[in-house]
Amino acid sequence: MKLHKICLLCMLLLFSNLNSIFASSSAELYLSEPNIRVGLWTKQSSVYISGEAPFTLKNLDNSQVVGHYEANAKVFVTVKDDKVMVNDKIINLKALEISLQENNVDAGINVNKKKYRGKVTISNVNKGGLTVINTLPIEQYLYSIVPSEMPASWHIEAVKSQAVAARTFALNNMHKHEAEGYDVCATTHCQVYNGKTVEMDRSTKAVDDTNGLVMLYKGKPISAVFHSSAGGRTENCEDVWGTYLPYLRSVEDYDQGAPNYKWEKKMTPSEVQNKLQAAGYNIGTLQAIEVSPLNKDSKADDRSSTGRIKTMCFIGDKGSISLEGSKVRSILGLNSTLFDVSLIVPNEKKIDVQIGMYYKKDIDVNLPPYKEKGLLNDKENIRRITGRTGELVLFNGFGWGHGLGLSQWGAKAMAEKVPETDSLYFKEILRHYYQGIEIKKVY
Ligand SMILES: [Zn+2]
Fold it and tell me: What b-and-e string marks burial along 320-354, b requiring 16 or more CB atoms within 10 Å of the CB?
């Protein structure tokens, strides 16, 4: 009787979640390596299919074979007036599956001229066109993800830390697009996925060397967000997204060698105004920008402890708007929220010098631009636009990305301090950027 009850519990657990089945052992969260369904395209009126080996099309409504095709045969799937056609022949179905007839690791399925591992399904269930989904084991998915996120030529321990972060991120994001019929999309919204063509030997090795390893907090895959470089210090999660996560804490970054460790961007006041307007914030003519000066130890309310902008105010002649730092970053297209703002009037590069009666000569001058610190009556956090000819808004800042979790340039710098043979160092990198986590093999 007791045994029977235990079996019943096992059955319940088994059917509770098709993709993340909890195994009885505490060390392994999954009974086997899960598959991931990646949404490649939606709303397509036609899809071009080919196989590098013989392939089969199956009607998923009734499991009947629609056709067997030789390697490199071309198949066009189109939809018109809600009718699906395969090479101009109307097929009454909602979903098609394309699979290779033999398990050939080097061969892929070509969809719209990109090459994919695993199986591909084309469905007509979402109105408005065809949805194309690639289903494959998660480790094979990572073969493509890792080199798209970090150069495969970097130190192997850095690439391995990226592989574990990407695997954890994917498992944490499973079912994000369930409403659309897949797990993750193929864009930066989830992780950029371009199929088999972008795979590189070194990143494939980094995935294999860390097979099944995932970062866990209290037994669950963490939200393993990562970014290019943090500009000296990563950020606390609540200061970027408003949500506290115990493992996304502000730690020192080693990204001083990153190309965007320091950056600057200049815009005319009307460019700033137009970008705000395009995002739906019509404040009239921009008159001033209000934000505390960047001071990495500042206690200002509108900046985080690392100096990232939490809120920033744009004042116009028709009204003013206070926006979150991340919103300002996306509207103005800036690298990060760790920046300062000033108004400058660049000096003319050449001045005319009269020589004698008849000659004029252009002479290069290289004076520093004049920095506008605001009018005397203004507080130091007000940057007033004066309307002088050539006036520019200068944004100068640090780092690239949201500053949460793993910094890729920081991981690179950490890895470069150890020999390539120190094959467990990737765990040190991960434990630095994600605090208090466990790294475990979950399948
Ligand atoms: Zn997505």
Answer: bbebbbbbbbebbebbbbbbbbbbbeeeeeeeeee
